[in-house]
Amino acid sequence: MSEAYELKEKIKDFLEIRDFKSLKNYLLEQNPVDIAEVMDDFGDKEFSLCFRLLPKELAAEAFVNMDSDRQKLLIDGLSDAKLKEILDEICPDDAADLVGEMPAGVVSRILKHTDPEMRDAINAILRYPKNSVGSIMTTEYVSLRRNMTVAEAIAKIRRVGVDKETVYTCYVTEQRKLVGVISVRAILVAQDDEILENLMTTECISVLTTDDREAAVEKIGKYGFLAIPVLDTEERIVGIVTVDDAMDVMETEASEDIAQMAAILPSEKPYLKTSAFRLWLSRVPWLLLLMISATLTSRIISSYETALAACAVLTAFIPMIMGTGGNAGGQASVTIIRGLSLDEIRLSDTLWVVWKELRVSLLCGLTLAPFAFLKVMYLDGLWREPDGVRISLIVSATLFLVVVAAKLVGCLLPLLVKAVRLDPAVVANPFITTVVDALALVVYFALASRLVPALAAGALPV
Amino acid sequence: MSEAYELKEKIKDFLEIRDFKSLKNYLLEQNPVDIAEVMDDFGDKEFSLCFRLLPKELAAEAFVNMDSDRQKLLIDGLSDAKLKEILDEICPDDAADLVGEMPAGVVSRILKHTDPEMRDAINAILRYPKNSVGSIMTTEYVSLRRNMTVAEAIAKIRRVGVDKETVYTCYVTEQRKLVGVISVRAILVAQDDEILENLMTTECISVLTTDDREAAVEKIGKYGFLAIPVLDTEERIVGIVTVDDAMDVMETEASEDIAQMAAILPSEKPYLKTSAFRLWLSRVPWLLLLMISATLTSRIISSYETALAACAVLTAFIPMIMGTGGNAGGQASVTIIRGLSLDEIRLSDTLWVVWKELRVSLLCGLTLAPFAFLKVMYLDGLWREPDGVRISLIVSATLFLVVVAAKLVGCLLPLLVKAVRLDPAVVANPFITTVVDALALVVYFALASRLVPALAAGALPV
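ok -> structure tokens follow
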């Protein structure tokens, strides 16, 4: 991006002429996210120098947006007083993220310099399992009482709003139970003497701390919320998830799904910051497993070795049949997996899905079969061979059957995996391909060994 | 979801006993998104009945969340007065979406009943190309002047805020040019007599109407904004994109990428609402194209037909080699495509990417090769064959070379496609598989025909 580039060049210029005062004023005007991004590229010395010029609020905001390596470097280099200053400025959920990523020695130094209230909040968030709502919530929010007037509510928001991650949705509580939700917009546009109880929504849409974090993201997206309240098992409000964190989770989850569909173990770091060794670790297990599982296809082909030797031309179409089957199955599975993860498809829709895929697969098969026949006959030149028509028909019929089977396997497998409460994305494309490959070969050879005279005569599988 | 289910049952109960007054009161408490979701499942008669019970704000909010079929049904059934009432309540961007989806006759009826200001706004939004920032922005936002005091700003927000899609980020303008941005939070927590100029941020991060809509989503996500200002080419503010719309776009774009990686033409409707015919249309073109492109692999195999007949066991490992190559290439391409679409990888990183993939592919190849050798020797039983060791070595060496080549092709192809300004997602997995398949066969046969004595003796390609 040119913005980050410009920022970087300007900072470098100021550093070069050692005009720290102008640099400080310049940095004051910049967005902390950009500052963090640009500083990531700096050498350690320039980096520390820049960071020390930032006022504490900006420093804290830039800090939470940095790489964990850089954060560690900073914490190691900061005085206790400065560290405390920054920790006081950051939100409990960011602090919990930080603590989650630092080595033990750094963690104890961080916890030593946070006030007891923050320490409790960090511990509360860290206690929730990874990927739960509790692990992404913040414990800071604005709570109001139901008998407050609009004027009183505005006064309270103005007083406490400085510390809260989001002030735009306020929660009306009674003995820590959530009894209503009201937006700052609704408060602002109402008359001063109106009572909150008459303005608030009492049907509160919320999530539980133990829900999957995707549940919070889904609801925020569906209802267009800026934040969603998080309740504990006794229905007391313990925090909120804000829309900016929801967007981050949405992006991460989509990346994870995409990685898993491509047979990669997901990792949270961006590609360029992941070492070749880590990338290898995330890719080689599936490659190995799928390579070993190809033993199935080798076996099937070996058992028809004599047949293939007698009619070698059959071999030429194996890649086409397996490839088309794999693609057809992949289309179905990826569609279903995405639908499941967006909650557009549920397990109760299984019959509908199968019925729909059956029709789609019949249509696809009926379209592809004649083209396959023509391709094999004329493009691959089988019209010159003695059994040409027969073999073209076999290829075409196999293709039809394989497309139908592949789409049915492709839609059923993710639903089955979902039914046993595993993640459908991990069974995606490549695994389905292995199943479909085996099916395709069995159908192909079964048809060929019955219908090609040279094979039907005697060269049946050993 | 149980919430929607509960809502549906309750509405049905009220309808059954014809207690419309209680139904109305009940609906008043519900979220319009849920109402729209539940009403989608109702019969036409119940549907119209329910809708007429909703007060206009709720009706309008439910209306924009409905299926386009249902929206059409409603518009056809509404009186002119009621239609106008609803149109007056909805935001220009939702109105533009509506107009974009309705048939011509309905559109002219809609435009007849919107006031001139709204009509201009709708037309302005519709004029922007699909997928541009202009097409997803709303033209309603709160603008303030730089010399206003905090008290004056609050008074203005309270006065005009009723009509604005988002009031939480305000834009300071001067002759329609954007000179500053200030959050309602910053205004609320400041002193009454403070001047906005001293509180606002002057480094405004913005997008242009003609930018790709992903640019707006990316910036909103990166900076954690609730809205981003949209400027025209003369730097005048013409609208904003809000975070809820950004989340929708993010989800749609991820779904599109996923579909394209699986060789599906993306469609915007959810799976269960897409007809089998439409699904066929979105899937069959790629299947057909990839089937035809498999002519390449058929040709290669055919040209080695005599060799394969002489050493039939070679055929058994074709699926494993091609499959592993396809998986290895797919891992690289999917990673790079996702990185490009998240802007984590840029074209200028090409050399870095190639260097990283080269190392990863060497690591993967070196891991897989010995396993492949052992698998072929013992799992597939080649130790019993005369040329067993030799063939196992050939398979293992081919696999190594194919994994390296596949990863390099997999990372380079998306970058190349991006360089010529096309969408990298469309060249993904299946297309790369075709290239890698051909490469794999050529390497395999080249090695085999040189190293297996029976073949090297004479059975070279025709």
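The mean pLDDT of chain B is 86.
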